[in-house]
Design brief:
This protein has 304 residues and is of the alpha/beta class. It has 2 domains: 1-57; 60-303, Rossmann fold (3-Layer(aba) Sandwich). Helices cover 40% and strands 16% of the residues. The chain contains 13 helices and 9 strands. It has helices spanning 2-12, 15-22, 25-49, 75-86, 107-111, 124-137, 154-160, 178-184, 217-220, 231-241, 260-266, 273-276, 289-296, and strands spanning 92-96, 116-121, 142-146, 165-172, 188-196, 207-208, 243-248, 254-259, 302-303. The longest helix is centred in the first third of the chain and has 25 residues, at 25-49.
Length: 304
């Protein structure tokens, strides 16, 4: 009987049959990745139920929650996790810097969860592509505006499109004066903010590129490494605005902030930069880190 079962299993699990059932090897890999994520989530739920058993708590690590649907990396999973902890209020978002909208931090919310919101993109061609994309994938729920956002016009651009007050999520990814845009923004009161930081400048220096309304990183240096702000600079700004730093993604790209009172109510720890900081993933670099830094070391930074 055991031999017969073994033969039957070999036949059932034959690669050709599995591929026919699943459709392709890639779909099979995706299925395994999906169930792997579920196992990781179940493990983390158990950890959260029994935090007293952890010998060395790692409050800054949320890698287990990362998952990619329409985001560049694992931001979709992190946004879903943090938002599930604090709860959405308006089911609205605003994202600055979306390119064609197919790969950004709010596409999942709009396409899969039915949220509505505003997307602003400086490249006119990409903004038109985003309009076309969301007119079919999220009809009537997403406004896309083509504009180069500055500290001087950010509030008026958002107000013109009819957005103000509380929104659930603000995402800023312009690879430039991100710090200055968040600093200037007063028309929105987001529950959560996702903003890129520049990990090249470490986890302790509070620095940003100087403000220029027409800042373009590739014009400053062909490498594109000179842009944005350090995590510590964004942390200081977040505290001034009433936000707690709750984590960073494993790629060393995005910082996640939640309004302090919401984070406290949800039991999310308010981290300092050294606890949350993640280094830039070296796999993303075309050359060693020191050589990257050498390219931009001569360019000015503003201490904040």
């Amino acid at each position: 009987m055991r031999l017969w079962l073994s033969a039957r299993l070999r036949k059932i699990l034959a690669p050709s049959l599995v591929r026919r059932l699943v459709g392709s090897r890639e779909r099979l890999r995706s299925a395994f990745r999906f169930f792997g994520r579920l196992r990781a989530l179940e493990a983390q739920v158990l950890v959260q139920r029994h935090p007293e058993l952890r010998r060395h708590p790692e409050r800054s690590s949320f890698e287990w929650a990362e998952y990619r649907v329409h985001s560049q990396n694992g931001e979709d999973g992190l946004i879903a996790y943090f938002m599930s902890r604090i709860g959405p209020s308006t089911f609205t978002f605003c994202e600055i810097g979306v390119e064609d909208g197919r790969e950004c931090n709010t596409a999942y919310l709009a396409r899969e969860l039915g949220w509505s919101g505003l997307m602003i993109e400086g490249n006119a061609k990409m903004a038109r592509e985003a309009v076309d994309h969301f007119s079919s994938s999220a009809p009537g729920r997403v406004k896309v505006t083509s504009a180069f956002v500055t500290a001087e016009n950010i509030d008026s651009l958002i107000a013109t499109e009819g957005f103000s007050g509380e929104v659930d999520l603000l995402a800023i990814d312009v690879d430039g004066v991100d710090y200055w845009l968040w600093k200037a923004l007063t028309s929105l009161r987001p529950r959560m903010v996702v903003i890129e930081y520049n990990a090249f400048w470490g986890g302790e220096r509070a620095v940003t590129v100087p403000y220029e309304p027409d800042f373009e990183r590739f014009k400053k240096d062909p490498s594109g490494y000179y842009c944005g702000a350090s995590l510590a600079a964004l942390w200081k700004l977040g505290r001034e605005k009433g936000y707690a730093l709750v984590g960073c993604d494993s790629e060393g790209l995005n910082a996640f902030f939640i309004r302090s009172e919401l984070a406290e109510k949800a039991g999310l720890a308010s981290l300092i930069p050294s606890e949350a900081y993640r280094e830039f993933n070296p796999k993303r670099l075309a050359e060693p880190l020191e050589r990257c830094l050498a390219r931009i070391r001569h360019l000015p930074l503003t201490e904040v």
